Amino acid sequence: MKMDSELLHSPAVCLAEEEEADTSDWNLPLAFMKKRHSEKIEGSKALAQSWRMKDRMKTVSVALVLCLNVGVDPPDVVKTSPCARLECWIDPLSMSPQKALETIGANLQKQYENWQPRARYKQSLDPTVDEVKKLCTSLRRNAKEERVLFHYNGHGVPRPTVNGEIWVFNKVAAINPNHPLAQMPLPPSMKNCIQLAACEASELLPMNPDLPADLFTSCLTTPIKIALRWFCMQKSAKLVPGVTLDLIEKIPGRLNDRRTPLGELNWIFTAITDTIAWNVLPRDLFQKLFRQDLLVASLFRNFLLAERIMRSYNCTPVSSPRLPPTYMHAMWQAWDLAVDICLSQLPTIIEEGTAFRHSPFFAEQLTAFQVWLTMGVENRNPPEQLPIVLQVLLSQVHRLRALDLLGRFLDLGPWAVSLALSVGIFPYVLKLLQSSARELRPLLVFIWAKILAVDSSCQADLVKDNGHKYFLSVLADPYMPAEHRTMAVFILAVIVNSYTTGQEACLQGNLIAICLEQLSDPHPLLRQWVAICLGRIWQNFDSARWCGVRDSAHEKLYSLLSDPIPEVRCAAVFALGTFVGNSAERTDHSTTIDHNVAMMLAQLINDGSPVVRKELVVALSHLVVQYESNFCTVALQFMEEEKNYPVPSPANTLEPCNLTPVRDSPAIPRLRSVNSYTNIRAATTARNLNKSLQNLNLNEEGGPVTFSPGNLSTSSSASSTLGSPDNDEYILSFETIDKMRRVSSYSSLNSLIGVSFNSVYTQIWRVLLHLAADPFPEVSDLAMKVLNSIAYKATMNARPQRILDSGSLTQSAPASPTSKGAHIHQAGGSPPMPSASSSSLTNEVPKPPTRGGEQPPTRPPYTPTLGGQAPHSHQFPRTRKMFDKGPSGSEQAYMNANLSTGLCDWSAKYFAQPVMKIPEEHDVESQVRKEREWRFLRNARVRKQSQRITQRGVTRLDDQIFINRNPGVPSVVKFHPFNPCIAVADKDSICFWDWEKAERLDYFYNGNPRYTRITAMEYLNGHDYSLLLTATDDGALRIWKNFADQRNPEMVTAWQGLSDMLPTTRGLARRVSICLDRSKGQGGAGMVVDWEQETGLLMTSGDVRVIRIWDTEREMKVQDIPTGADSCVTCLSCDSQRSLIAAGLGDGSVRLYDRRMGANESKWIVDGDVRFFELRSPDSVNVLQTVKGLTALDIHPQANLFACGSMNQFIAVYNSNGDVISNIKYYDGFMGQRIGAISCLAFHPYWPHLAVGSNDYYMSIYSAEKRLR
């Protein structure tokens, strides 16, 4: 609505709005917006790691074949005079031919030994064909699977033939018929042959007398020497005064000593050639040539230099595999600069003995890398300098800075880790773990956490090199910051994950004791990973479990079960689950411990976080696997009880279809499908088929629970709604499980914790029955798997005489037909899933109630859930023979011992994602931030404009601005505080309307069981990213997102807000309670809630004797305040500033509670009229007689208005003085029909709007007169 548009755009107003937006909305916390609410709890897809060389090779033998024929030039080459003479830096004409040949051979061997000292060298000088053949075959045979290097120098023989044959002495020998110069395809045996040659077939080698004759060999074996000579021969060398070829020979130092000038040049040369190759070559070729074999890598790095030098003399060195040209790469300029800086110092170093100044090359390259990290955009090419960072790790001078930059690079995400591993970072960082330098610890721990988060296979390398000891010492170091200890314990958790060698090594390293000391650390992520690490070290490893028993590890973990952080509680449940899940031999002692742990875990049955409850099901499933026979006995006992339980007569109860007037049921619109991460249990129709989850509370008062036949799987209801073939497809349906829960005679679970151990299995079975009825589908699905698995095994084992003569346990005869209502069916084959119809595990959502007498609509087609298989029953044909084996390949029970929630893998994703990056919501330029700013300005505008209207005073409130027919009878309405959107709940579905445009935005099924109804709704985070909370009268709370827009609504979370709703005050067989006068005690209040956005606290009450307060940040119950009354709570209101809670009760009293005082209260009595109270006074200040048959009342939070709705089909709106300002009896319009009995009403939090829902399905909104708006 456009209100006061001229004021809206005035600068003063905008300024004030911005100020208001800044102060109020920015400071409000957000509920249910953590990663656990927005992400699917699963690990990231593992990237295929190609960095690890599967076939690392060695060159073990080298054949040096020299055909020089010293003193005689070959006939087909005309040499210049003077000509290049030097072979291996020796002038062959300076000594006798034979001596020259031997000296050159010895020199060549020395040059190669610099690169590969351990190889076996064989010289073959001016050989014959037979000698070469013999040499090659013997070397090949001795090398087995490794490489042989064949070096051939044919400067004394004719050039190769057209066929690629090379010459030796006495005759032509086809030694290497596939010389690279011959353009012939390689036969398969030559595929792994790598070849390097000095020039193309049509080219001649350079004859410049300043160069050696074997220029190519010099480049490959003495690169620094030839590179410096070539540098001096360039014109640019004149810029470096005093440097001559003679001076170059005197460069001090050794090639392998990086502190000397010669060693530093060699180091820079290695870094530059490696970098050029990594940036130019395809990754797989780079791995093969530069990382697989040390000698091959050295020769190829030097080959890049050969290409640069020889191309300057019109020669093109060739290779197979062929490389892209690299001679013009920009990094060569960095090489020239490094040579220039080094040579310019030479004269003073040699003549005056001045100290050598180290090259700034590495520092400058690190700076370039740093610039890339800080200045770059998201999507760009990888940094060129990555291989140089690798080289710098070798230097103590630059190591700290290099590790810091490397860590920042790895933090960019898994792609960066994969890139660094492909460069070859792994052996370097592994070697650094041997360093004792304390300053490296934080950096190395960070880098290793990043590597292991992406590739956990490195666990074996770490244990092999004793790397785990490094991280054990970091974890045990109390002076280490918590975040570094967290990374260390994460690394150790990866090392012990499903890896026995790692578990043994860490157990010997005292990991359990170190972890137990850190359980109470204030850092939550550390507590979480310490628990996960403990859970993993004793997973299927009995000696670690007994070590834990000796240290009372399980008892120390109990404290984490009440941790304020749900992920920490989850990790503790995981650790205790694997603690009881060992399959070693059991003693009485270990059984006692398992029972203790199980009963401690059982206390988490009503934890507020579904992540914790899912982990609880898995933990209990480990126990079930361990004590399978005991649980089978319990299961059979429960099944018998359920089967023999009498069924009340249907005549005593009302059919659920009668809950709404039949005569004018609206046509049912199609509901939106809902995606709640796995599925929403839905039935063919909400009224007829969702019989599964009725009254899923614990009966705290004890005694039998009254229930209607719809709860039971009677033969008539089963056949009429499900069709008989379906009933053969599962062992335990939701109905059976629900009936079991309520049939078993027990009192509140809370009183069961101290029971004798022979009944522990019964208690755990009951806990699983409750979890199977969980409002969060993923939890109930997991529990259903566990229960059905045991039920299946129990029924199979209980009737061995009925097994068919095939001898296979996977087939069985039908159950004895004594009771048609019992759902213990031997469906053949494998353990069936819950029936498609009774508990469909789909993403589809059913439609709301159909008109009385209509056939239910057909069920939407089944679609498998996210990442999951179709439920087992869907693999069967619809009609099936009794003894059919069922679908093939599914003969195992569907709860395997490896049931898991993916929590650990999901938690590990934290380390793979960027942790240094500013979160998007804090980045002032991000879209998320801009959207939030827009919302907050809109909020400020709504507050300001509505305040202006309410301050003027509202004298009438009967202008109907919206009317529409809702799909179901409205039971709760709730305005969105800032959007023109209103949520209207009927019994089990929610409809969203845009009241400005008068159009429906969304309609979806809430997922609550039959015989329950939605009794309260709240918008959470209404000022920002809105969520909708729905409360149902079975005590369940569900929270939804993505509603009222184009996306599918998704369930964020759900939990049992009140576990002990009292059936006595609820009454199962009743008409819609909004039609009742509650003062007469018929029907209960259901569940009522009040939400405090400022504190994140949710107050819940209803048909119970307490007000329960939930902390949504911690997702746990923080307080139970006893109401002190014998009747239900019908409404709640809290004052966050003063910790006060006012509760209206069914006995007509209003009680005031102080959260800080617990059970203290003050009490007022209200009798069907409206009273005003001053909080400090026991007596009412004012009493107003309002409408007869009051069914709904609401007070405007800002304006002094309240409205009363009557079952006598009218609404009265009053001001605070008690004056009636409006009486509404008819709908606007031509026919102006009478409004229906009022079922609910609600004021807008800011605007003077009143929403009214009535029993005739209509939903209308009334507002102040137009001139005010």
Automatic annotation (TrEMBL):
Polar residues compositional bias, start-end: 807-819
Pfam families (UniProt xref): HEAT (PF02985), Raptor_N (PF14538), WD40 (PF00400)
GO molecular function: protein-macromolecule adaptor activity
InterPro entries: ARM-like (IPR011989), ARM-type_fold (IPR016024), HEAT (IPR000357), Raptor (IPR004083), Raptor_N (IPR029347), WD40/YVTN_repeat-like_dom_sf (IPR015943), WD40_repeat_dom_sf (IPR036322), WD40_rpt (IPR001680)
Keyword Transcription included in the entry's annotation: no
GO cellular component, one term: TORC1 complex
Keyword terms of this UniProt record: Repeat, WD repeat
Raptor N-terminal CASPase-like domain span: 56-210
Renumbered residue ranges of the record's region Disordered: 700-724, 807-889
Comp. bias intervals (Low complexity): 708-724
Entry's family note: Belongs to the WD repeat RAPTOR family.
Protein name, as recorded: Raptor N-terminal CASPase-like domain-containing protein
Organism field: Oncorhynchus mykiss (Rainbow trout)
Gene (UniProt): LOC110493661
